[in-house]
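Q: Entry one of two.
A:
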Amino acid sequence: MEWGFPALCPCPGTLCANKQKWQSLPQDVRNAIMTVSGLAGAKFWGRNFFDTAEQGALERAKAGNYELNRYVVPPDELARWTKLAGEPIWNEWVKKMEAKGHANAREILNTALDLLKN
């Protein structure tokens, strides 16, 4: 199948490879991919495609004469949702991952949750 564009392109998305395939790539290729990915890449794409998208959406809504009603979940309600729905799912995930031999599952979860705060 011809895609009409390079398989690796400067677009937001995910590149998945199994560990053996990744390790089979030359080190300079892996380094090039990693310089534009990871936390720095996530912050770049998040800032440039999601954070800045809000203003454009507001302008389009205004131009189309649409009314937007913004709702911010109150902190106490968000805490309740987290306690009822978030924590049980997260704890079950940690339990499953640790059972599969991933001793650092709790650390991974905590890091992901910390990143959501930024």
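Q: Entry two of two.
A:
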Amino acid sequence: MNFTYYDDNKQPNEQGRQDVSEEVLARIENNFTYHPPFGSQSFRYGVIRDEAKKLAKTLAQFCPESRELSVALTNLESCVHWANSAIARNEKPPEDAKSPHIP
């Protein structure tokens, strides 16, 4: 599925706003909704974080403290965020699964 946030053919109204497609509204709803973990997700989040931490320590050991190292570590944090977001946003819990946050 290809998502875009804009359409070159849409023109803003007098207030500078344009109509928002259902596709964009659905993406916003999904991306800004809390997705409680289920099944093996928590385990996989941990594996991704642990592996990134190993790489971060390797980078810190072999690279001089510098702006470049800081950028590398920041991008590694982004990598973990987006990998975990891929899991959270794109996997749907089974219909009969209860959220651990709802009694």
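A: Comment on entry two: The chain has a mean pLDDT of 88. The radius of gyration is 19 Å.
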